[in-house]
Amino acid sequence: MIGGKIAKARKEKNMSQAQLAQVLFISPQAVGKWERGESIPDIVTFNRMAEILGVDLNYFSENFQSVAGEASLKKEADSDENVEKSGKEIDNELQKQGLLTNFSGSSLSGSDFAGIAAHNMKFNGSALSGADFRDADLTGSTFSGSDMTKVNFDGANLTDCRFSVNTLSDASFNKAILIRTEFNASGLDNAKFSNAELVDVKLVNTDLRKTVFENCVFNNVDFKNSDLRGSCLNEQTFVGVKFHNAALNETTFKGATLKNVSFRSTYALTNKYYRAIKTICFDEAKMDKLTYAALKGLGADLSKVTTI
What we know:
The chain is an alpha/beta fold. The chain has a domain at 2-90: Orthogonal Bundle (434 Repressor (Amino-terminal Domain)), CATH 1.10.260.40. The protein has helices spanning 2-12, 17-24, 28-35, 43-53, 67-79, 87-97, 271-278, 289-297; strands at residues 122-124, 142-144, 162-164, 178-179, 182-184, 192-194, 197-199, 202-204, 212-214, 217-219, 237-239, 257-259, 286-287, 306-307. Helix 1 (2-12) crosses helix 5 and helix 2 (17-24) packs across helix 3 (28-35). The longest helix has 13 residues, at 67-79.
């Protein structure tokens, strides 16, 4: 009965199984199983599906479908004919209704969002631990006050995304697209940024002491007021980067390339700040003459640095 109701409402919306699956962030095979009566959605999915299909939640439980009609709909669901309305048109319609974008306050731990293309999404106060966003296009999305432990953003497009006051412990950002992405006051313990280029990114007011950066390029990145004490930034490239008021005690830049990088404090330079600069390791690093001169003026040990 439920499978037939889903199939009927879907077809009245001129949606294919694949299109319904896309907006529910599940596989087309799952929709097929529902419509064939092999499984049923959970209550959260039922609520979202009712909104998308424009039906009342009670629609799925009302007993007005005949057995013959159910069998007919089941057969149609198996064949799943092509629909005239394109997926792009449906996506635009649903975007206007806000059905694809706002998941604030939702319980989505372990959810599969891999490969989705949905811009300007909102995840405020959401439970997202273990969620999979691999290769997703999340341009312009907002994540605030959410539990995002062990979230996978590998290969994801995070252009213009904002992360504020989130728990991102053990999150993965391998080959993620990070352009104008902002991280503010978020927990990034053991989070890993690897094989990525960070362009116009802000990592401000954030504790980065246990964050892992490997094989990254930092282009015009702002680390203002962040804690980088003891961080290993070896063998990476920094261009136009600002470490203003960042805590850098014992940070290492071994073998790194630095061009037009600023370590100045925006407050008065104190003896404590000079002492912190002296603890930074720049062994085998390469830097332009202006960066070299600025660090030399702050008392940094540049005895093993090469100018370029």
